[in-house]
Amino acid sequence: FNDRINVAIDGPAGAGKSTVARLVAQKLSYIYVDTGAMYRAITWWMLRENITPEDQSQVNRKVQDLVMELIPGEDLQKVLINGEDVTPHIRSLEVSGQVSQYSGIEGVRSRLSHLQRQMALRKGVVMDGRDIGTTVLPDAEVKIFMTASVEERALRRFNELRGKEQVTLQQLEQDIARRDRLDEGREISPLRRAEDAILLDTTFMDIQQVVEAIVSHCRSHVDGERNHL
Ligand code: CDP
Ligand code: CDP
């Protein structure tokens, strides 16, 4: 793949974005950027500092002061804040329950969007999140909006957490539905399908099928551009 493009993958919680985005990036030898991990890292940091999402001016001040680094890895991408690896903490239910409140705050969004755009400047990036195709990388060459039924998404999360966290399927379904509502309903760059994004309903698709579908979209985009020259 010589002609490097950017790939934006958005969609609701548990749709399979991060799993699929990582595999697509591997196949294309691209860099994978998990923007949800960045919002989660900020959330964990604020919770530890006892700064509530209601205290927006304090959140905005803190988020400007900290230094965030992303280190791509084989499996998980690492997130460092002020040099501290916060990755082990960011997938907890506590963080999942609060992240949508912090991610609606203006200063948080502008700071993280800026970092995300910088990472994509040289192209060859697969980035997943909620507002990548609409706001962060509106010029991404390939945009995917990935969904699945809420029942299926909760079940996927449940299977993933089984044995690790004490949680019921019903709790997960509620958490996911609530987070979707907050993410879709916020004022600044809400979760929304970009007009030019391809809608991919993965309810009845396995991971490999989804990966193949996206890689083939990328290939036909690049081939199409070549034939234009
Ligand atoms: O993995 P999961 O789908 O549960 O969530 P995530 O992708 O890790 O994102 C966690 C939260 O971060 C989302 O529910 C959003 O509130 C926020 N987020 C966002 O606002 N914008 C993004 N580009 C990515 C995540
Ligand atoms: O990033 P997002 O929240 O959209 O989802 P994820 O964390 O990538 O996927 C949630 C879970 O669903 C993972 O355990 C995946 O292995 C699984 N999954 C699946 O079973 N079938 C798919 N087509 C996609 C993901």
From TrEMBL:
Pfam families found in the cross-reference section: Cytidylate_kin (PF02224)
CDD domains: CMPK
EC number, as in UniProt: 2.7.4.25
The UniProt record lists the keyword ATP-binding: yes
Catalytic activity field: CMP + ATP = CDP + ADP; dCMP + ATP = dCDP + ADP
Domain Cytidylate kinase positions: 7-218
Alphabetically ordered keywords of this record: ATP-binding, Cytoplasm, Kinase, Nucleotide-binding, Transferase
Primary location class: cytoplasm
Protein's GO biological process: nucleobase-containing small molecule interconversion; pyrimidine nucleotide metabolic process
Record: residues binding ATP: 11-19
Nucleotidyltransferase recorded as keyword: no
Locations listed in the record: Cytoplasm
Molecular function terms from GO: ATP binding; dCMP kinase activity
GO cellular component: cytosol
UniProt record similarity statement: Belongs to the cytidylate kinase family. Type 1 subfamily.
Name by which UniProt lists this protein: Cytidylate kinase
Lineage, broadest ranks: Bacteria, Bacillati, Bacillota, Bacilli, Bacillales
